[in-house]
Design a protein that fits this description.
Elements lengths: L19 E7 L3 E3 L3 E9 L6 E8 L4 E8 L4 E7 L9 E8 L4 E4 L3 E4 L13
Parallel strand pairs: 2-9
Antiparallel strand pairs: 1-3, 3-6, 4-5, 4-7, 7-8, 7-9
Length: 126
């Protein structure tokens, strides 16, 4: 995208910059049901405080979770709880939407694994 500015430089001018949604990514390669999964969304020319709606969907298109975020310095970092209803082996993705800017994109898909469970711990003397 090339911008060309041809107005005089000794006066104030108002210009409009187009907003864009650059990326929407999970911050991890797998998710665990019953636990939170991290999300990061990157934008360009979006003001601080802009609301983001995040909808997590299964690979079949069923909504399995929702959360809201806010853009700060062209980025939104948040997490979403993966419900127990998502079965191990399913893949999920999320839709990020900035409705005030008319922007929407999907993340890549990640696989859901069983919740990490630690049991029967033993300590011994060295």
């Amino acid at each position: 995208m090339e911008l060309k500015f041809t107005k005089s430089s000794d006066q104030k001018h108002q210009i409009k910059l187009d907003s864009s949604l650059v990326y929407a990514e999970w911050t991890q390669q797998t998710a665990y049901y019953g636990m939170a999964a991290g999300i990061e969304i990157g934008t360009l020319c979006v003001g601080d405080g802009a609301p983001v709606t995040i909808t997590v969907k299964s690979d079949k298109g069923k909504t399995v979770g929702k959360t809201n975020g806010m853009i700060v310095r062209n980025r939104c970092r948040t997490s979403v709880q993966i419900p127990d209803s998502v079965k191990p082996g399913e893949t999920i993705y999320f839709e990020a939407q900035l409705s005030k800017h008319g922007l929407k994109t999907d993340s890549f898909k990640i696989i859901v694994l069983p919740k990490i469970k630690i049991s029967d711990l033993h300590w011994g003397s060295a």
